[in-house]
Amino acid sequence: MSEVRLLVGTRKGAFVLTSDGKRRQWAISGPHFAGWEIYHLKGSPVEPNRLYASQSSGWFGQKIQRSNDAGKTWEAVGDKFVYAGNPGTHQWYDGTQRPWAFKRIWHLEPSLAEPDTVYAGAEDAALFRSADGGQTWEELAGLRNAKGHLWSPGAGGMGLHTILLDPSRPQRIFVAISAAGVFRTEDSGKTWRPVNRGLKSLYELPDPDAEVGHCVHRIARHPSRPGVLFMQKHWDVLRSDNAGESWDEVSGNLPSDFGFPIAVHAHEPETIYVVPIKSDSEHFPPEAKLRVYRSRTGGNEWEALTRGLPQSDCYVNVLRGAMTVDSLAPCGVYFGTTGGQVYASADAGDAWTPIVRDFPAVLSVEVQTLP
Amino acid sequence: MIRIVLPFHLRRLAEVEGEVQLPVEQPVTLGSVLDALEARYPVLCGTMRDHVTLRRRPFVRFFACEQDLSQEPPDTPLPGPVVTGAEPFLVVGAMAGG
Fold first, then answer.
1. Is residue B26 one of the residues assigned to a domain?
2. Nearest CA of chain A to the CA of B65: how many Å?
3. ipTM score here?
4. Which residues of chain A have a pLDDT value below 70?
């Protein structure tokens, strides 16, 4: 019987939720690191009991935790994130240049092949890599040469929030950065370039087609089609069929194309999920109805998924890292809310059940499908 | 021995309960106590002061003998009662307000 392990990062700690393949009954472990913000935790694809967690605090800074036993015990590893060389400056809100300064790790992405290799996405935006299980970190500084001096933080901070590793081309990595855009390397992180053609930010940027500066909220792809990317931008849902060389809007009939997360079905590469939010000014669902929207056509044609979700007086948000899919059949879909609910669907989104209702605000949800 | 009181989250990180007691060579200064604390508990590196610049983190405070030493330079001598162990040195998470 398969097992599913959900890794939930919240404003006040981490939780590990486990279930069998039926995904009806869940055991909850946590909070781990109670009282700390856990922006993200994720397991190694090659050693699933190896977990990494980003633990941070406005008072006491950044810690990285590692577990080798699926979260039963944890060990603090390295947290010295130092920008390489003289990092220079980036654009600030008032138009001046501001020195790069480390604030926190938003995202941890374990290697697809090496359990001791893990990538970390930082605010102020930078990509770090560890090859020793998180003990030491080295910045892949070429990323900031991709017009980093023009990146400027949005209200949520200039965080590198998405790291996509390519299972078929290990030298290729995509990252996405708030208020900067999507960037791609073809040489394992030495050199990077922006891949934002087709993105339009009419009300966010003076030049709507700028090469950098777009507020990309999340990108996702199916492992069998690594060149096909889906994006939830600040406004607009888009897709790229050429590894980011160009993007086309596929918002279609969504009630709002503002939102944060986007996910791809585990077995249907053209089935994607978003959670529309009313607007950038009102971060709650349209009509106060919590609806996941599913497209089975890779975008443009969307259907609302509502069974089991609150359809009145709902004012939660779903953050960019808080939706994921398992690889069972039927595909399980999971998301967490700022109201502390974690919802699960064991039938690809047709029906939803809250696993928990009263967690702290959920920052991230990852899932591991175990044999 | 220098007695040090850590805030809850740092006690959890360092896996200690109650006060920490550390030998610190003379002269006992703000910086030398923090150095000794981080040497004994490396997990605390970066939590009280920046890894590289060693500047105090903005929402961490250092108190001793009813004095706020947070703004003082690292070579500031700690008060006599802290040096003799009569009084503790306090690492404090600043009030969050609200």
1. yes
2. 23
3. 0.94
4. none
Residue B43 lies in a domain: yes
Q: Specify the DSSP class assigned to residue A333.
A: E
d(CA A367, CA A35): 23
Q: Could you list the residue range(s) of the whole structural domain that residue B66 is in?
A: 6-93
Tokens of A326: 């398992």
pLDDT at residue B96 above 90?
no
Number of structural domains (chain B) is 1
Nearest to B13 among A58, A63, A82 (CB): A63
Domain-embedded: residue B98: no
Looking only at the bridges linking them, the beta strands covering B2-5 and B89-93 are: parallel
Mean model confidence pLDDT for chain B? 96
Indicate whether B77 belongs to any domain. yes
Domain CATH for B64: 3.10.20.30
CATH architecture of A37-244: 7 Propeller (2.130)
Alpha helix segments (H runs only) across A144-268: none
Q: What is the pLDDT of residue B98?
A: 65
CB contact under 8 A, B48 and A60: yes
Residue B29: DSSP 8-state: B
Q: Are A101 and A81 in contact (CB under 8 A)?
A: no
- Yes or no: say if A137 and A129 are a contact pair by the CB < 8 Å rule: yes
pLDDT tens-digit readout, B46-58: 999 999 999 999 9
In angstroms, the separation between the Cα of residue B51 and the nearest Cα of chain A is: 7
Mutate to test the interface with A, among B8, B12, B13 (most CBs of A within 10 A): B13
Query: Quick one: which of A136, A243, A265, A234 has its CA closest to A193?
Result: A243
Q: Between chains, do A79 and B13 touch, taking CB under 8 Å as contact? A: no
Q: H-helix or E-strand containing A118?
A: strand A118-123
B31 or A2, which is more confident: B31
Cβ distance of A76 and B60 shorter than 8 Å: no
